Amino acid sequence: MDRISRFLYHGIHGNAVTVDIGLTILRVIAGLAFALVFEKVLPRDGIWGPQEWFVNDVASMGFPFPVFFAWAAALSEFFGGILLIVGFLTRPAAFLNICVTLVAAFLYHGGDLADSGLTAFVFLAITTTLLLAGPGKFSLDGIIARRLSSPHEQKDA
Fold first, then answer.
1. What is the pTM of this model?
2. Fewer CB near the last or first residue (10 Å), C or N of the chain?
3. What tens digit of pLDDT does each residue of 43-69 get?
């Protein structure tokens, strides 16, 4: 199996089932939060996509093309959240949301752990964990990894 598919679909081999259950819970809860709680794509007040306040926040952080970057963040959160929920392309989805939460934690909230930035830091920690550990066995990535593995590798998984 090549290195790209290993990175995309494989997690840590030989996890205890409790670790895989824990990764599943972490993935699904984080994905739900990104897709639904932080949603900026679904319509509000009859408007699809990032609201004007979000575009203004992106502009105030100094980003060029604030509409583009607001859309990029909103799509990363929404579709990345859905990918996390089902555990498909978990690491790329986690990476994109690491970028979003880094910006939120350090640029928007100024690294304020005590108050407004805590949520961004929590989701930064969660997405970093998912990037490093992978999705766990109970994911579409896990199913794909098992199907792509040779019979010898399947014994180790």
1. 0.84
2. N
3. 777 778 888 888 999 999 999 999 999
pLDDT tens digits, residue range 78-123? 999 999 999 999 999 999 999 999 999 999 888 777 777 898 999 9
CB 138 within 8 A of CB 87: yes
DSSP secondary structure of the chain: --HHHHHHH---TT--HHHHHHHHHHHHHHHHIIIIIS--SS-BTTB-SS-HHHHHHHHHTT-SSHHHHHHHHHHHHHHHHHHHHHTSSHHHHHHHHHHHHHIIIIIISTT-TTTTTHHHHHHHHHHHHHHHH-S-SSSHHHHHHHHHS-HHHHHH-
Enumerate the domain spans of the chain.
Answer: 3-156
In DSSP notation, 5-46 reads HHHHH---TT--HHHHHHHHHHHHHHHHIIIIIS--SS-BTT
- Look at residues 76, 74, 73 and name the one whose alpha carbon lies nearest to residue 92: 76
Measured in degrees and rounded to the nearest 5, phi and psi for residue 47 equal -115, 125
